[in-house]
């Protein structure tokens, strides 16, 4: 998976959500359980994903498996990009 996706997601989270200085925000840190992203933040995160990466996030895809960490968001974006570039998509 391209590191640029992960880096852009990390930058968005650090810029737009409260992450205390010194917090170790690892790629697999839960954004929800850690209190970094709340329900309104999910909407902001989705808007970022759609705008920055040109993918659509369906209501059914707004689940922790896709959005709960920097790593999960990056994998989700990569999957969506592959699906949109697949023949017949």
Tell me what you see in this structure.
The chain is mostly helical and 89 residues long. The chain has a single domain (3-18, 26-85), classed as ACP-like (Non-ribosomal Peptide Synthetase Peptidyl Carrier Protein, Chain A), CATH 1.10.1200. Helices cover 55% and strands 0% of the residues. The protein contains 4 helices and no strands. It is globular and about 45 Å long. The mean pLDDT is 91.
Percentage of residues in DSSP E strands: under 5%
Taking all Cα atoms into account, the compactness measure Rg is 13 Å
Secondary structure tally, helices:
4
Largest sheet: none
- Given this structure, which CATH class is correct? Mainly Alpha
Mean pLDDT: 91
In the CATH classification, which architecture applies?
Answer: Orthogonal Bundle
Write the element-wise H/E pattern from the N-terminal end onward.
HHHH
Instruction: State the low-pLDDT regions, or none.
Output: none
Structural class by sheet pairing and helices = mainly alpha
**Helix content bin:** 55-70%
Task: Please report the distance between the alpha carbons of the first and last residues.
Answer: 21 Å
